[in-house]
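Cast an eye over this sequence plus tokens and explain the fold to me:
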Amino acid sequence: MMKPALAALLTGSLAASLSSAASAQAPQVLTVPDFGDFLVVDGPGVWMTNRGRVEHWTREGLVASVALARPCGAMAITGGNLWVADCTAGAIHRIDTATATRTLTVETGIADKSGELNVVAGAGSVWVASAAAGEVARVDPASGQIVARIKADPGTSYLAFGHDALWAVSAATQTLLRIDPATNRVTQRTLLGRQPGFLAAGEGAVWVQEQGEGTLARIDPATGAVTGLVKVGANLKYGDIDTGAGRVWLRTTDDQEYVAIDAATLAILARVGKPVGSGAIRFTPEGVWTSAHDVKTLIWWPAPALGPTRGAGRRAAH
């Protein structure tokens, strides 16, 4: 039986989108002390940044913890290793996920020491925005050698890898860059709306939160053209984004905990949960993980059986 506190997390918007109310399962809420924030999926669980440490959680609870000075930003897993930025050390750390031990530190520099950044993996490398003046460091994950320092737009800090390219966003210049991993050069530049932030590359497009506009922008990876916009709220500040199952998953700060958007039609399929402040989101085929550091929770939301769309998203071009 669903407890009242959990039932309150499911809004009428979500209930309306379920094909059958009886098929809905209650979300599982885990209490995370301190400041649990960014997430990356590792098998049935997730790794999470926290104050002075990164932690491995499953639905059964805390599995492991690794002490770091100040882990920050979204993380990546490749080759059985977790890669996480450290805003105090100005470096990225490699952590063996099987033994929960730190095995390497690479002094790359960190572009945004407030923690609004990503470490990503792709093309046999690990990538991080490494200087506020506009630079991305490319690291060999086996040796820790910095194999390239790539010139980017000033203020570049948000990264994603997909569609055979590295994608980089600068909030300062309101741009999305395509970086070719074969040449380590910028090959495409797209102008975005106000205060662009976290992004994802998947479901046939590159998706960027326009945090100051309250919109999600869809970009064609081949041409760099903005092919659609979805108005989600007054703003999309300080949230997160992921893709999967034909949808874009947005962790929001205002109005609800997260939003599911149809990647093809740009329809908002569901608005889930109550607003609980900022946090992260990661999709799996079995369900969605969200964190909420202000209320100290990590929530597992079983995959909802989303019904018909509730109206098409706004389409426009900048």
